[in-house]
Specification:
The chain is α/β, with parallel strands linked by helices and about 280 residues long. Helices cover about 45% and strands about 20% of the residues. The protein has 13 helices and 10 strands. Strand 2 and strand 3 form a beta hairpin. The radius of gyration is 19 Å and the shape is globular. The two termini are about 15 Å apart.
Length: about 280
Amino acid sequence: MILIADGGSTKADWIALDKQKNEIFRVRTLGLNPAVISREELYNRIVNMFQLISVKDSVEEIFFYGAGCGTPKPVEILKDVMQSIFTKASITIAEDMLAAVYAATGKSPAIVCILGTGSNSCYFDGKKLHMKVASLGYTIMDEASGNYFGKQLIRDYYYNRMPENIAKDFRSQFDLDPDTIKYHLYRQPNPNMYLASFAKFMFEYKEEDYVKELIKKGFEEFFIYRILQYKVEKNTPIYFIGSIAFYFRSILESVAAKYNLSITDVIQRPIDNLIDFHKKHIN
């Protein structure tokens, strides 16, 4: 059996294939970002998923693509955790950008971007990933991500910049007590995921001018910092992965047009495309 997983900070999608690469099952666990989640919690999030544990002795290969897997130390932590569970498996761990590339463009050159709990981008030349900017995480980067927009919503609410009709609903859906917010931001693990949980609110008001301007500002920052730095041909394909890009595609396309660029495609969930790539290209 082969397990293929695409994991972010919030969730991870797993698909099990047999040796003929036919799908057996698919499940979703909580996120498995080893850069921000403890070793113990990584272990618990895997073993608490019955479908995975029930086949642990049958798994021969694991291909895991995840957020936080771009540097050696977190990769080593996650690999050790997985090896302790799937003792008979050969385990390959790579960063989520590689899964995004495989899902979006396969083996063709393109700029590929992720807008999830965090955000990132790369230029893929057909063989290698090229990243202009090292990602320093949610506190000072991650433009146009879930945690970025969650942070903006909370700030606008407290600075009285959110329209009252929207603010009223915002209050009804979230615990906005200052002590509660500070507790989650400064005393609890994974504040990036906490901030990102607020971003879903934008989908309910995506036709409101306030939300449109918020999204536009975030997308413009992302283009300036994460796309325009790649000095590539104007006709280079540009792909986006993630729900924020998917649901606000029209704004994304208008921002791209401002810089004489066009969006080739937006993929909400890359796991199916990733599986297709594996079936065709990876033995």
